[in-house]
Amino acid sequence: MASDLDDYKTCVDISKGYLDTALTVHIWFYAITGAIAVYYLNDKELYPYKVFSLILPILLGFGLIIASCKGRLQASALKAKTDEIGRELEIANFPPFDILRQSLLTFCILDVLIVLGLEFLFLSSFSFFSLSFNWSFIILLILNILVAVVLFLFFRDNEQLESKLRKYKAIYIELPGGTFQGEVLDFPGVIMCDKDLDKVRRLLRDELVDRVEKNLSVSKALPIPNSTLTVGKLHLEETICLILTTSTKAQVVAENVDE
């Protein structure tokens, strides 16, 4: 119970840190971008080379767009984990993670608009762009929208996959008499024994799937995966990756083995 409460507090602190970091980074980005834009627009006709100063905020903007998208993914995974622990601890009110997710979405949209404006300023300084102003601007707008849509779809698919993925840590030890015992450390009660190691691994995976599906069928929260758990001398260690294919079904999608 105490460990779960510590994990819950850690998740809440991480969410606060995410939001604080996002605010701080974007405030600096807007300040730097504004300063560079003013520098460029001041006597830009006399000093055409100033246009290249816009490259820095454009690159920073693209980086923040990607970071905001990935941040939403991580915030969603963190929310799912916190909610799961909260249900186990019977906590009535969960932290407002939607504030973090909506803030990151807002930052992402603003960053896209800022980058679009900076690209327009950059390209408008060249003659080939200004000769066909309308068409060039439309093409630039379409390209940026396509990039934004691709990023959105990519991170949305990853977010959906991540929310359904569970990675549990399995260990195997050799007992006296040549018998192998397998156990999923972060899913209590999933233990199997046999003299054939491969059979133990197969039985352990099947038992884990059965236990997961049983919990899902009665709407019972799944144990939180914890890759830091370990024991003494091991014969084999692996990560069993499960994906929740429906509301009550699960299947093994991968195993990462460490001898």
Q: Which residues form runs of ≥5 with pLDDT under 50? A: none
Taking the alpha carbons of the first and last residues, their distance comes to: 32 Å
Q: Beta fraction of the residues? A: 15-25%
Alpha carbon gyration radius:
26 Å
Instruction: Give helix % range.
Output: 55-70%
How are the strands ordered across the major sheet?
Answer: 3-2-1-4-5
Helix and strand string, N-terminal first? HHHHHEEEHEE
Q: Can I get a quick summary?
A:
This protein is α+β, with helices and mostly antiparallel strands.
Structure explained in plain terms:
The chain has 259 residues and is an alpha+beta fold. It folds into two domains: 2-131, no CATH class; 164-258, Double Stranded RNA Binding Domain. Helices cover 62% and strands 15% of the residues. It is built from six helices and five strands. It has a five-stranded antiparallel β-sheet with strand order 3-2-1-4-5. Strand 1 (165-175) and strand 2 form a beta hairpin. Helix 2 (55-89) packs antiparallel against helix 3 (97-124), helix 2 runs parallel beside helix 5 (133-164) and helix 3 runs antiparallel to helix 5 (133-164). The radius of gyration is 26 Å and the shape is elongated. It starts with a helix and ends with a strand. The model has no long low-confidence stretch (mean pLDDT 77).
